[in-house]
Each structure stands twice: as structure tokens, then as C-alpha cells.
Amino acid sequence: MEQSAKKNESSGQNDSGPVNIEKEIDELNTNSRQIVFFRTMIRTDIEMRKTLVNTLQNSGHNSDEYKKSVRDVEELDRNNISRILGFYDKYGVPENQSAGRMQADAMWLIVSHNENIKVYRTLFPAFQKVWKKEYLEEASFASYLQNFHRLVNGSRLEIKNPYRTPDEIDALLKALKGELK
Questions:
Q1: Segment 41-52, tens digit of pLDDT
Q2: d(CA 38, CA 44)
Q3: Minimal CA–CA distance to 37: which of 106, 133, 137, 124?
């Protein structure tokens, strides 16, 4: 029974149905709760994607099992975007370095699965802040900006070699300036 409850909790559901994300976020009033929240989000995302790949390999692309697994991942992605946006709206970026780094890692992972330009625009201040606080690696921030650029312009920004990651970030910030209002 306890293992079943854990599985349901990690998939965004409990015994009474979908988790109320707003209530879940309201309860994140300590650094340790925030760290667990983001760590669980990351772990669940990775596990669900592994399950998706395994189901594809074992059951095939046209199987009902694979189609269900795809729907489960899509639902998890929607819920996780809501969690990321809700957390940022309520708490911003934590001052605590551990919570901030976990938020940055979770944000980057969850947003990297997303193709909604509005999400990229909304979260730009959060990404910029975690990057400036050095909670997010430069390469991850550059990756976020490249994805943002691709969504806005249909392609990644080509940068003349050789370049360093800070040069790439500067070029992408300049190229996206009109989008970052």
C-alpha cells in the first residue's frame, strides 16, 4: 500500500485523484521541502521517460501500452510546467543556494521538453536570475536560450567559431532582445 501511494504521489496523483498543484506549492514553505519538490520532479521525469522508452522497445510504437505511456508523459509534462510556473509565481528564485540549484535544474529539465514559447517568455526572468546567481550552468542557460531562439525564429542561432559559452549567451541575449520584454 505504501509503495502504491509513493508511485501515485510521484506521478502527480494521490488516492483521491489529481494533486492540487496550488495546494502542493503552498506547502513549500521551507528550503528542505522545496529541494524535495524539485528533486522528486526531476526523478519522476527521468523515470517516466525511461518507462516510455522501455514500453516502446517491448511493445512497439502502435501498441496500446506505448500510447498510454505517451499520454502519461504528456500529462506529467503539463503538470510539471504548471508546478514550475506556480512555484516561480509564488516564490520566485530561492535565496538558499541548494534550493536555488535544484529549482534551476528542474526548470531546465522540464522546460527543455516544452515547445510553448509563452512558457519560455514567462520563465526568462527566472532563468536569467538562476544563471546570474550561478545556480545554473552556463551551458544549460545557453541551451535554454538556443531553444527559445529556435521557437521564435525556426532555427538555432549560428555563431561563428571559435566561441566560448559566454559569447554564445551574449549573442543569444542580443538576438532575443525583442522577445525578452
A1: 999 999 999 999
A2: 10
A3: 106
Give how far Cα 95 sits from Cα of 20, 30, 131, Å: 26, 12, 13
pLDDT at 128 over 50: yes
The cell for 96 is 538558499
Q: What is the DSSP letter of 14?
A: E
Question: Residue 47, SS3?
Answer: helix
Task: For 7-21, write each residue's pLDDT tens digit.
Answer: 334 444 443 344 699
Place of cell 520584454: 181
Write down the pTM of the prediction: 0.85
* Distance, CA of 169 to CA of 176 (rounded, Å): 10
For residue 76, which of 125, 43, 35 has the smallest C-alpha distance?
43
Q: What is the DSSP string of 75-123?
A: HHHHHHHHHHHHHHHHH-S-SSHHHHHHHHHHHHHHHHT---HHHHHHH
DSSP state of 29: -
State the DSSP code for 160.
P
**Around 39, how many Cα atoms within 13 Å sit in the side-chain half-sphere?**
9
Q: Which residues have C-beta within 8 Å of that of residue 39, sequence separation ≥ 6? A: 102, 106
